Amino acid sequence: MVPKILIIDDEKHLCWALEKAMRQEGYQALSATSGKRGLELIKEEVPSLVILDLKMPEMDGLEVLKKAKEMLPRLPVIMLTAHGTIQTAIEAMKIGAADYLTKPFDLEELKIVVKQNLLVNQLVTEVNFLRAELAKKYTNLIGQSRAIQEVKNLIEKVAISNATVLITGESGTGKEVAALTIHQKSLRKDGPFVPVNCAALPEQLLESELFGHEKGAFTGAVARKLGRFELADKGTIFLDEITEMPLSMQVKLLRVLQEKSFERVGGTETLHVDVRVVAATNRDIVKAMEQGRFREDLYYRLNVFQIHMPPLRERKEDIPLLAQHFVEKFRPTYLVNKISPAAMELLVRYHWPGNIRELQNIIERAAIICQGNEILPEHLPKELLAAQKTVVGSVIDFPDQGISLEEVEKELILKALEKTGGNQTRAAQLLGITRSALLYRSQKHGINI
Fold first, then answer.
1. Residues 295, 324: one domain?
2. Which are the contacts of 112, defined by CB distance < 8 A and separation ≥ 6?
3. Alpha-carbon distance 288 to 25, whole Å?
4. Assessment of whether the complete model's pTM goes beyond 0.85
5. What is the pLDDT of residues 254-263, one digit of tens each?
């Protein structure tokens, strides 16, 4: 989209000259010779940037600026002012002007200022969009089980503080989701959320990644680079797989946690940052300390507030909700919109060594294979079907005196209702029958639901 530049100045020849200059730069351009007309064009045309004269008859630039900002708060406005009104220009900056130039100004300088402000505004728009998308993607701890409710309660309590948080749990249980949820619910939510996978980089690169480096600090350092801690200033840094961090880096991280300061690689300037640290690991961190692979003093610095993410096998009642969530996620791409009761039963019975990440991958795979709107058992991987055969062989333990089919059916219904907390729809899914069939069979066996 070509940026649209609006010039508001009571001097017609200046409007003409600036319009011509902006078009030569590849922008759309339009102008108004009065504040009133300028405000009308802002409302009608929604420009990308405004060049506004400070001194105009009837309605001066300050008044136009105030009204423009009420209409479009993020609209960049560059003020044009005479030498004698610098103080007024500063006042305009306080109101929300992006920049100002004094008349007579250099046209090349104006072009640079326009280009810089358009770029900044574009970056702000992109950052806000990405933050919103990130929030929608991650800050949704799905589930109604007691285990996940406890996690949600802990997050609510710790989020509003600045305490360092250590998140533990198996791979794929949603540790990054929990970390971002903490950020989104904190007073730092408008600041950056910066994730770092400590296991993904060798020691030399990890130091540069965390703390940045100066130009010439090492071979290939052709320019200064800001580290993740600098980028996370006023926000949250998420250190994933923290137990994989080399011991030498653990010492440097400990200093940052203690003093909130560090130096870039190859630099001498001490930098101070205001960053909240959330760390995570899928390892036994106590065992890592005992083996000398993790510093005890760093552990106590990180473990101010610990949250454990439960594995999926310990919150099976959440599987139908999570599975349907992924179906909704993939619906626009693969057109799938539901999971059959029989397929859902297989999902619930499976032990999920890869946890939520594995569930998401299996739902996407099934959506690709099914080529329709419903995922059926045959669309699921063979390990889920194998698990069904194993479970079916051990569901019923026949007593010596025998057992009737009606008693088995009643027992299964009661167990399904108990497992789902009385939720009829989910109990029916576990049993592979419809809700109406569940109601009919429950009534037949005298089960009050």
1. no
2. none
3. 60
4. no
5. 999 998 889 9
